[in-house]
Amino acid sequence: MKEFIYKIEPEEEEERIDKWISNAFHSLSRSCIQKLIKEDNVFVNGRPRKASYRIRPDDEIRLLIPDAAEPSIPAEEIPLSILYEDNDLLIVDKPKGMVVHPAPGHYSGTLVNAVMFHCKDDLSGINGVLRPGIVHRIDKDTTGSLVICKNDKAHQHVAAQLKEHSVTRKYHAIVHGRMTEEEGCINAPIGRDEKNRKRMAVNEKNGKPAITHYKVLQVFQDYTYIECRLETGRTHQIRVHMDSIGHPLLGDTVYGNRKTKFALEGQTLHAMTIGLRHPSTGEYLEVSAPLPDYFQHLLNIL
Fold first, then answer.
1. Which residue in 11, 38, 150, 151 has the fewest CB atoms around it within 10 Å?
2. Is 150 left (phi over 0), alpha (psi -120 to 50) or beta?
3. Which one of 18, 93, 139, 243 is the catalytic residue?
4. Quick check: is 139 catalytic?
5. DSSP letter at 298?
């Protein structure tokens, strides 16, 4: 059971307790918040409160969040496209449509299931049962390079590089519209979309710093082929940033959602290159994943 205690500041506006929790804990779903309230795990000034309670200045909020029961995750013999492997790291080329790690209601067919079969017991345990070896992730419909850590030392080493933004991460994408500038930088904070909690958005008030560098590789009649280099790694960063400047990713039904004549499964985005200092040797290691067939075929059509 995790316990969180907050003191409402005098300048904070009055609002419903369930809304306040939603804004304070982005990872909690609305149904989860309602369950916490119903089970008397939300207290204000020592008393359990209903969802309709409106917080006031100087209120003390105490939130109890039960520990999640983590199920055992089965190893599954799913083919992997391996780009690099040694005793510390496994770098794979994730296919389109594959989820990286299990989640409630979806415990099989993920990259983790496949990696557990391939690596047996050689995986970092830092991120728990659901995410063994996972130090970063890419979206279900994004393809390309993904690093798996085989031990805790490697995990800590790679995580530190991600935190200090020293990992090279280059993505290739096709966006709507003809881009006129050959290259550019988008520096705009990203946070939860206040109008739709399932989306991310450029959020100047509550967002975290996010920087994407891009350069044009080829311009077509109605589309542009670009390379993006991430300086930070926020959720859906490239998708949000490109949409924010009027060039959403082709095939992205969440951001932009423009009509297209092509039959696509999600955004046209590929994690092309990843580079980092090796956790044991300290030498720079860079690996690239070839463009998937659907992406190359689309470029040929354009």
1. 11
2. alpha
3. 139
4. yes
5. H
